[in-house]
Structure formats: C-alpha cells, structure tokens
Amino acid sequence: MDNGQEYIVYLADQPYNIRYWDPKFLAVIGIQPGRQALEVEVVLRGRYAELAASMLGTDDIDALQSDPDLDGVFTPSGFSTYPQLVVWNNDAVVCYGVGNECAPD
Question: Which of 69, 74, 92, 103 is the most exposed place for a label (fewest CB within 10 A)?
C-alpha cells in the first residue's frame, strides 16, 4: 500500500484524537466514506441528572425515573465515550427538526 494506506491498520486501536471518521481524512488515504450521519436539532427543557457511573442496573434506572424532578439523564463525552441522553418525559421535548425547522416557542 502506498500514500499512507498502511497506517489504516492502526486506526482500529486509536482514540478519538485521530479523525478517522472525517471524510477528508479518509480521502487522503484513499478510502471512500460511506453515508454521513444526519444531525437533528433537539430543543429540550427540564432537569437532567448527569450519570458518572458507567454501569447502571435496572434498579438504578427505576429510581431515577421515579424522581418527579427529573426529565431524563445524560452522560457527557469523554476520551473514550460518546455523550448520551435519555429523555423519559415527552413534555420536556420542545421541538426537533433538521436545519431551521426547529423553532422553539
């Protein structure tokens, strides 16, 4: 392989500081990117608990959902994790859409 393509083997073990998900990065090493993710704007209101534990049991989730002051939970992004959000109160979703379709009240 030439043009640096042999380095693609190393990407499987790399963290997110290497932009292997970026189509421009892939094009340089000769890889045609697939379909890209669609970003959808979501506007929420309410209160959300930040989860620090990586493993939660069913009892933990049940306890959080029974808290009347919470509309959902989230985990922030980290060096090796994706941010995640769970909303269990439908009334907390103000609007969602693509581009300028989402205009909150």
Answer: 69
